[in-house]
Amino acid sequence: MRKNIVIVALAFLTGCKSLNSTQKGTGIGVAGGAAAGAAIGKLTGNNTAIGALIGAAVGGSAGYLIGRHMDKQAEELKQAIPDATVERVGEGINLTFNSGLLFKLNSAELSNEAKQELDKVAGILSKYDDTQILLEGHTDDTGSDEYNMKLSERRARAVSSYLESRNLPASRLNTKWYGESQPKFPNDSEANREKNRRVELAIYANEEMKKDAEKGELK
Question: Could you list the residue range(s) of the whole structural domain that residue 85 is in?
């Protein structure tokens, strides 16, 4: 079974350029839900945010409706926060902030500009209240493993706490931190290290949205 899942995952990764976002969500859900998420997570550098999005997929016609619903939310996020990276993945959304946009070097205190950006994010997430949010903190490899783990925790918690202060229920937020263990790029230049210092959000359907989609009632 695992071998079949990996084959499907590879097919998705190599063929996704020919699919639109909604079609990607449908295909991944059919590929096997959480198991496919684990396989694709390994193939994409063990990125847990991406793996969570793939694992949350339900597929089929319900997945199609969820994907279409997420398309609208992703577009609003792109327009509201152009300095962040917003990508549709499976039936969810991957939103990535470069930590330099949120924090000063070696600090976990949110800047005023960061708070303004997070206000916009909170407003959109509150509007689409049928989603769950996985929030992750990451660093580059500068400094010790222990220091980086603690820094990624403090930054992830700072963003999570601020979103809660903007009336996002704690029950919607799942906060994790990984230090330097999940680089998106090789830590071989300052430009790449800057990209690895990031706070990442995975936005995916909650159980209520999934049920509505399965009944064909999701608009």
Answer: 2-214
